[in-house]
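Priority: low. Protein: DUF615 domain-containing protein. Input follows.
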Amino acid sequence: MAEISRSEQKRLLKQVEATARECLELSETEVGRLGLDDQLREALAVCRSIDGGGALKRQIKYVAKLLRSEDLPAIQRFLREKKGSKLDADRLFHDAEQWRDRIVNDAISSLEAHRRREEPWPTNWSSAAIDEVMVSFPDLDEHDLRQNAHHYARSRKKMYYRELFRIVRAAAEKQRQRETLAEQGVLQRVNTP
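Result:
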């Protein structure tokens, strides 16, 4: 077996220490799901009670030492999945904000165009943003979406602005749940003989 250089050993130890730091951020229930032994759980609890400084660094090194005797790839996989779900939630939030802003901008520009022409602004005004969001999230109530955008463009009340965000975010979350269930169903069908 090839010998690992000291530099490579140090890099590996730093990775294990980084994993130990990430384990500190887990809740007790998440640590329970990992199935860690009692000694490691106690070391993590002690680590959480230390405010900082050299004692915390020593305790993290101790936790890293204990982690090396555990199934490290499984722990790192769990941490990556946890991070990924947080990133997905953040992305969903930002996407919902962008959809809302596009709808609001369409509504405001349509209202201003109708005012320049001195025409009444219809509640069923044409909007490319609403058409696109309806394609992305077919479960959306188009009437509710148009009505809130219409009210916001006319009054600039934040209540309608927030309601538009809530509607789009709820539809995006529902779509994500449906996709997750579909993926799980596909995985279950693939895994069953």
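The chain has eight helices and no strands. Residues 6-70 form one domain.
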